[in-house]
Design brief:
This protein is α/β, with parallel strands linked by helices. The chain has 9 helices and 11 strands. It has one domain: TIM Barrel, CATH 3.20.20.
Length: 271
Amino acid sequence: MTIRYVEIQVKSIITPSKLPQSTYVINPYMGCSHACRYCYAKFMKRFSNHVEAWGDFVDIKINALDVMPKNQQKYENQSITIGSVTDPYQPIEARYELTRKILMHLQASKAEFYLITKSPLIVRDIDLLKQFTNMTVLLSAGFHDDVTRKLFEPRTAPIDARLDAAKQLARHGIKTILFISPIFPELTDWKNLIERSKDFCHAFWFENLNLYPSLRNSVFNALGKIDKSLIKNYIDIYSAGNTYWEQVKAEIEQACQKQRVAYEVCFHSLK
């Protein structure tokens, strides 16, 4: 599959956020080549001029540094998430290094930073990340096995590679959270992911699959390749409000408390 890359000019790179933990967000790219079947950021396509499917184009905000605020005092005691609707370390970052350049610019900032990625490429920037005293990296993994991963995330890195990246980050003193997201009913073995990474991850965050109507076809198509009965199970789960997820939340809380690991459950309400 050919991915279309386009260099674009933007008016701003730090924008206000409605995310619960962030005042502002930074997205060095528009679009994402990971092509995750469940990507909630697909709505961003309407802000572009692309006819390609989401996952088949990436706009590179080539002037990102030029529009970075010179005076960063306004961000003191604010929180900034890097990668809210794109992966800042998707493959094109290896060439353009926009995320790295942005991090270099932000080093003196007194804001609190969250950086979200699925990519082991992040280890390239350990030299920068370890200089931040206010940086939290969230390495995302929604599956414990690569067979399932490839069905839903056809262009992402293997799970072991992500866990190894988390281990390297933590070894260098960088606060590293395994973001177990999204949790797929009957597919995500989150206990397995905790067991494989509890010795080095600082905490675990959990997010459930938010099955927007616009995503159902792509998710159901992938589910059908595993077991067609899963489609009906998902319809039942997502028609029953929060019943299923309240049970999963209770299981997570019990397991994390038993393992004595820090955790946060960030579930979307279905009511």
